[in-house]
Amino acid sequence: MLIRSAxxxxxxxxxxxxxxAWQVAYRGVMPDAYLASLDQGANLDSLRTxxxxxxxxxxxxxxxxxxxxxxxxxxxxPRYEADPSTAELWALNVHPKHWxxxxxxxxxxxxxxxxxxxxxxSVELWCIQGNIAAQRLYEACGVHPSGEIRTTSSLTGHxxxxxxxxxAL
Length: 169
Fold this sequence. Notes:
single chain; 169 residues; 7-stranded mixed sheet
């Protein structure tokens, strides 16, 4: 398995991985109609533009097996009010055909290394309650729940509970 920086040509793979992962991981957690409406091509032009930027607004890593992207992670500045020395793991998506094969764990470890290299003091993430596999993965990587919970409906239009996880660097 190879962990590498994403390139603009990875955009379609990233879109397909995100949709496949969400449709399996969030079944029964998010509304079925919302999951069925997910579009693999959504926002790919803006993703390509960001990846072409001299200084992208995030660090996007891809896990590749035999030349094929199977998972990705996005690390960036927090999208909520937080200490400026904090980095946020915005996303971690693994194609369901590759679950429990180590790519998620490798991407979390790489994100922690990237945050440390960027001089962050900690990494935070928000995990949708009910995504037990993701919760177990984060905890196996040493990223633990902080006890903070929030409710958001910005993704689906329906309330979702999110659990905060933190890792001190």
